[in-house]
Amino acid sequence: QEAAKYDKKVMVLDFVTPTPLGTSWGLGGTCVNVGCIPKKLMHQAALLGQALQDARKFGWQFTEEVKHNWMTMTESVQNYIGSLNWGYRVALREKKVTYENAYGEFVGPHTVKATNKRGVEKLYTAKRFLIATGERPRYLGIPGDKEYCISSDDLFSLPYCPGKTLVVGASYVALECAGFLAGLGLDVTVMVRSILLRGFDQDIASKIGEYMEEHGINFIKQFVPIKVEQIEEGTPGRLKVTAQSTVGNQIIEGEYNTVLLAIGRDACTRKIGLDKVGVKINEKTGKIPVNDEEQTNVPYIYAIGDILQDKLELTPVAIQAGRLLIRRLYGGATTKCDYVNVPTTVFTPLEYGACGYSEERAVEEFGEENIEVYHSYFWPLEWTVPSRDNNKCYAKIICNIKDNERVIGFHVLGPNAGEVTQGFAAAIKCGMTKEQLDGTIGIHPVCAEV
Amino acid sequence: MGWEEKQVRGYGEFAETAQRCHGRPIFALFCGDKDAAGRSWCPDCVTAEPIVRKELHNMPDGSVFIYCLVGDRAYWKDPNNEFRKNLKLTGVPTLLKYGTPQKLVEEECFKAELVRMLFTED
């Protein structure tokens, strides 16, 4: 849409290869269809369940038992996503961007072949190309994985309640999904190979894990599935999972209605003909290295989003990078995308917002003696009356002593973490120091004042 | 096989007709009532109608096109009218594909390209 503003002739090729189970979706990419949007809505559904429990302590009286209907929630979520898909179609049309629901691949210099779902092929040439093909969930590569397991691609439109679920993985995707499924009243187990939330502050990661365990989610640690078999067909059916310990020879078995794989995502760069135009990719990870202007080693081909090597995999980062790139190419701008100090939030049952360095990374980069960590547990006022945990919410900031005690890391674990973190991210971008932070009077009574 | 048009007035007639045509693609255009001279109180509806009608041949075979007059201006302005409540309509004219989130509202209906896209979109 940005390029069309500069009167460029633009075409978008978007195609979703269905999952092993046949799931597919409309225009908008992962975030809109099988990522952030449905995830946050389902997380909200789970939070509302909790709120209903708290409500009684605040004086609301209702005698009926509160139950959750998976189909009602899923239909509403999918309906909303459908309106977004349609909205994008209308927006592209209005801005005169040509959209084809076809699978694009390079076949030669400046040329792509687009194949639609009926197998009809068309060739298109262009002056410049932007690759933003994103990633798809990885499968385990064990017997029964593609036939019987689902991934996040399938979960958000699953036409039946998943029932007793085994979530394999300890990524934020795994923990967020396990979190809301449990919040909706399902029996959830998480099977973890080694650590939780690799890449995130580990002190916080373990607090998140603890909270989830104390709130009814089972964790099986240091095991990996080696086989999935079907005991009974159905919606959902019954599956038997055999798993092996990573630190010994122990084998365990378990029965579940659904097995959700969330062990990582792989870049969609292997089957789009990059070799035909000479674009270099990291053979091991599939990611594309680019310079700080999002340009690949082939000057007329650019790339943005999750497929980039060594860059954050977040929707707003991709959007920002894309917009700035177009402004540089056609609008005479020079601003490059700033990948530093990007705030993020993990929507686990106890939400986690962060911006900047984790404690480990700060120690690694600046040395333990040069950083100071200030931290505090807090008890949200809203949790007092319903007697919810008083020692779980937590906040910490990491400061660089050598640089005026500049705040280089912000971490908060508690309700509305995303909303809280956004403001502090702006402050960190401005180079806020501990003194300035101390000098800012708090809003009372809110969690953020801590 | 082509397509057929059904003209209805008011929410009750609309709902009944849509129900009877269940299983076929249903497109609906909602406009303000017309006076004795055939002119609607809604100027945007007057503009949109011919544009939409010109694109009707793009609808898939077997489609039903429901042309629905919603009522007079006072009825429409009431925030609790049945069209607002049950179909979530926010303005007239509205052209929509029944049972999906796909719709075009007000000035969007003036664009032949968008109308065509609504009729032919998968």
From TrEMBL, chain A:
<dbReference type="InterPro" id="IPR006338">
    <property type="entry name" value="Thioredoxin/glutathione_Rdtase"/>
</dbReference>
<keyword id="KW-0285">Flavoprotein</keyword>
<protein>
    <recommendedName>
        <fullName>Thioredoxin reductase 1, cytoplasmic</fullName>
        <ecNumber>1.11.1.2</ecNumber>
        <ecNumber>1.8.1.9</ecNumber>
    </recommendedName>
</protein>
<dbReference type="GO" id="GO:0004362">
    <property type="term" value="F:glutathione-disulfide reductase (NADPH) activity"/>
</dbReference>
<comment type="similarity">
    <text>Belongs to the class-I pyridine nucleotide-disulfide oxidoreductase family.</text>
</comment>
<keyword id="KW-0521">NADP</keyword>
<dbReference type="GO" id="GO:0005739">
    <property type="term" value="C:mitochondrion"/>
</dbReference>
<dbReference type="GO" id="GO:0004791">
    <property type="term" value="F:thioredoxin-disulfide reductase (NADPH) activity"/>
</dbReference>
<feature type="binding site">
    <location>
        <begin position="169"/>
        <end position="176"/>
    </location>
    <ligand>
        <name>NAD(+)</name>
    </ligand>
</feature>
<dbReference type="InterPro" id="IPR036188">
    <property type="entry name" value="FAD/NAD-bd_sf"/>
</dbReference>
<feature type="domain" description="Pyridine nucleotide-disulphide oxidoreductase dimerisation">
    <location>
        <begin position="342"/>
        <end position="449"/>
    </location>
</feature>
<dbReference type="GO" id="GO:0006749">
    <property type="term" value="P:glutathione metabolic process"/>
</dbReference>
<dbReference type="GO" id="GO:0005829">
    <property type="term" value="C:cytosol"/>
</dbReference>
<keyword id="KW-0520">NAD</keyword>
<dbReference type="GO" id="GO:0034599">
    <property type="term" value="P:cellular response to oxidative stress"/>
</dbReference>
<dbReference type="InterPro" id="IPR046952">
    <property type="entry name" value="GSHR/TRXR-like"/>
</dbReference>
<dbReference type="Pfam" id="PF02852">
    <property type="entry name" value="Pyr_redox_dim"/>
</dbReference>
<keyword id="KW-0547">Nucleotide-binding</keyword>
<feature type="domain" description="FAD/NAD(P)-binding">
    <location>
        <begin position="2"/>
        <end position="322"/>
    </location>
</feature>
<feature type="disulfide bond" description="Redox-active">
    <location>
        <begin position="31"/>
        <end position="36"/>
    </location>
</feature>
<feature type="binding site">
    <location>
        <position position="306"/>
    </location>
    <ligand>
        <name>FAD</name>
    </ligand>
</feature>
<dbReference type="GO" id="GO:0050660">
    <property type="term" value="F:flavin adenine dinucleotide binding"/>
</dbReference>
Automatic annotation (TrEMBL), chain B:
<dbReference type="GO" id="GO:0047134">
    <property type="term" value="F:protein-disulfide reductase [NAD(P)H] activity"/>
</dbReference>
<keyword id="KW-0676">Redox-active center</keyword>
<dbReference type="InterPro" id="IPR010357">
    <property type="entry name" value="TXNDC17_dom"/>
</dbReference>
<keyword id="KW-0963">Cytoplasm</keyword>
<dbReference type="Pfam" id="PF06110">
    <property type="entry name" value="TXD17-like_Trx"/>
</dbReference>
<dbReference type="InterPro" id="IPR036249">
    <property type="entry name" value="Thioredoxin-like_sf"/>
</dbReference>
<feature type="domain" description="Thioredoxin">
    <location>
        <begin position="8"/>
        <end position="121"/>
    </location>
</feature>
<dbReference type="GO" id="GO:0005829">
    <property type="term" value="C:cytosol"/>
</dbReference>
<comment type="similarity">
    <text>Belongs to the thioredoxin family.</text>
</comment>
<protein>
    <recommendedName>
        <fullName>Thioredoxin domain-containing protein 17</fullName>
    </recommendedName>
</protein>
<dbReference type="InterPro" id="IPR045108">
    <property type="entry name" value="TXNDC17-like"/>
</dbReference>
<keyword id="KW-1015">Disulfide bond</keyword>
